[in-house]
Amino acid sequence: MAEKKGYVATTKFLIASPTKVRPVANVVKKMSCSKALATLEVMPQKGAKLISGTLKSAVANALNQNKQLDEDMLVIKEIRIDEGPRLKRVWFRGRGRADQLLKRMCHITVVVDEKAGK
Questions:
Q1: Do residues 22 and 14 touch, judged by C-beta distance below 8 A?
Q2: How many CA atoms lie less than 13 Å away from 61 in the CB half-sphere?
Q3: Which of 26, 45, 89, 95 is the least crowded, having the fewest Cβ atoms under 10 Å away?
Q4: Confidence (pTM)
Q5: Calculated CA dihedral for residues 20, 26, 31, 36, nearest 10 degrees
Q6: Are 38 and 52 in contact (CB under 8 A)?
């Protein structure tokens, strides 16, 4: 019928711009989970820490649901950075004016699955 979906973890409403998090996600896409976690550990971007937490959760979900799995057997099947709502704040400017400051949010979804070769 349908192919196996994999093991999913989602983190929502993170205060980080999706456009800043997506390049970090593109670096670790299709990597093995252990290698991706090591790569994210040394990256200086804020998005690396956010993706790392979601990836650890997806790995924990996989290991909890399937006891025969090992962390080295898992690979990132899909990683998606979606746009969330925006917090609108007032940004006071000179001469009595005001601008609108948009604090953007993102939703991170990570899907891990077993390596296809084994």
A1: no
A2: 15
A3: 95
A4: 0.90
A5: -10
A6: no
Q: What angle do CA 58, 40, 21 make, to 5 degrees?
A: 85
CA within 13 Å, CB half, 16: 21
What is the number of other CB atoms lying within 10 angstroms of the CB of residue 54? 21
Q: Which residues, at least 6 apart from 101, have a Cβ–Cβ distance to it below 8 Å?
A: 88, 89, 90, 91
Q: Order the strands of the 74-92 sheet from edge to edge.
A: 7-14, 98-114, 74-92
Listing DSSP states for 22-71 in one string gives HHHHHHHTT-BHHHHHHHHHH--SHHHHHHHHHHHHHHHHHHHH-TT--G
Judged against a pLDDT cut of 60, whether residue 1 lies above it is answered with no
